[in-house]
């Protein structure tokens, strides 16, 4: 395996996990938002990840074989809205309460979001470790030539 491709794959994972953590942070920040520009309460966002083909560089295009071109990275393909049921709470003093005094709340579960955040953070750490391992191997290979 080409070590530069390994670094590209790890880099795509780092970018993707950072995006996932940003989406989770947005969900947590809007856990009590009852009014949005679209109307109604905030709906939880869900990132959809997809494997991608790592674009070869000119050097690797010349030297790599067919199997190396099939190596993939990862990306956030789209961000979907969670269409699960919204919660309601009786609070007649709330400005967004309906005529019966019920407020519709976002479908964000803080505990669930924290579990997803911990998973994304672990994935990020694993990608950093893989990136550093590839970098270390490249540096050791350069020392062989001395």
Provide keyphrases for this structure.
single chain, 146 residues, alpha+beta, two-stranded antiparallel ribbon, two-stranded antiparallel sheet, 4 strands
Describe this structure in words.
The protein has a two-stranded antiparallel ribbon with strand order 1-2. Strands 3-4 form a two-stranded antiparallel sheet. The protein is 47% helix and 18% strand. The protein starts with a helix and ends with a helix. The model has no long low-confidence stretch (mean pLDDT 88). It has one domain. The chain has 146 residues and is of the alpha+beta class.
Largest sheet: 2 strands, antiparallel
Which value, in Å, is the CA radius of gyration? 22 Å
Calculate the mean pLDDT score and round it.
88
- Extract low-pLDDT stretches: none
Indicate the multimeric state. single chain
The side-by-side strand order for the widest beta sheet comes to 1-2
Structural class label:
alpha+beta
How many extended strands?
4
Number of domains: 1
CA-to-CA gap between the ends? 23 Å
* Helical stretch tally: 3
Strand content: 15-25%
Helical proportion, percent range: 40-55%
Please outline the helices and strands.
Elements lengths: L2 H27 L15 E9 L4 H6 L8 E10 L5 E4 L11 E4 L4 H35 L2
Antiparallel strand pairs: 1-2, 3-4
Helix pairs in contact: 1-3
Summary of the model, kept short:
This protein is of the alpha+beta class and 146 residues long.
